Amino acid sequence: MKITECYWELKNLDSHVVEVSIEKNDTFDASKFSFPDKDYVVVKVPVGDTAFNFGLSALNYVMIESQLSMSKALKCYPFEDRLVKYVSSKTELVDVSTHDELQEILDEMTVDMFSTDRIYLDPHFGPKMSMRRYRNWMQDEFEQGTSQICKVVEEGAVIGFFMFKMEGNVCDGLLGGIFEKYQNGPYGILTPVSPALYLQRNNIACKILKTHISSNNMPVLTLYNYLGYKIDQITNVFIKHNIKNDTI
């Protein structure tokens, strides 16, 4: 069992947060899941582990989503697919290299852009706090230089963005989206496709693309399925709020 003190979440969620990851061969022990000094507890359980599922439920933990880890070999990417070719021909993928360029993206991100996010769906937090968390994450990644952030440009207009990091020859797609005012067009598939197009256009050595998707986000899961991604792992996410002073 791995326990992580998520100190960075204090500025995102105004909460003291701990995350527990259940590992292979762990056995359920109710005494290990009491965190009275934490406001918000997240427990990630490998799918099918019924002992933890029932045990956490008995402790008033709530399952809020499943996280699907998915991957695809870049050499097998469907670049010749009709829809992929269409959006590729219409867009540029441009590195975000200045604070002003990053701010342009952050200003276009609206509270309902990630409406399947577990923080968004949690009435204790809600849409505004969810968006604050995403913005802070992107700013931190940019400042630390730990991820690449790019904007998606169509006919001179920035219509979306994506963020990824390289881990050896593996590309980890962290976050991406099309801004709300452009979501009714044909560009939704750019959310999963953009990192692959960027790697191809820039001749970046990569063998595998991977990402993590919430089970709450069926539209994006459908797109990854369309592109032939395989599911490598499913993790159930349980949460609990330790309410203090009768506040919510």
Summarize the structure.
This is Conserved domain protein. The protein is of the alpha+beta class. It has 8 helices and 10 strands.
Plain-language structure description:
The chain has a domain at 2-67 and 236-241. By secondary structure, the protein is α+β, with helices and mostly antiparallel strands. The chain contains 8 helices and 10 strands. It has helices at 9-13, 50-58, 82-90, 99-108, 118-121, 127-144, 190-201, 218-226, and strands spanning 2-5, 17-21, 40-46, 62-73, 92-95, 148-154, 157-167, 170-178, 208-214, 230-241. A 10-stranded mixed beta sheet has the order 1-2-3-10-4-9-8-7-6-5. This is Conserved domain protein.
Q: What characteristic shape results from the CA principal axes?
A: globular
Radius of gyration: 19 Å
Number of strands: 10
Low-confidence stretches: none
Rounded mean pLDDT score: 94
Summed up, the helix count is 8
Q: What is the rounded distance between the termini?
A: 29 Å
Tell me about the biggest sheet?
10 strands, mixed
Beta-strand content estimate: 25-35%
- Oligomeric state of the chains in view: single chain
What secondary-structure arrangement, pairings included, does this model have?
Blueprint lengths: L1 E4 L3 H5 L3 E5 L18 E7 L3 H9 L3 E12 L8 H9 L1 E4 L3 H10 L9 H4 L5 H18 L3 E7 L2 E11 L2 E9 L11 H12 L6 E7 L3 H9 L3 E12 L7
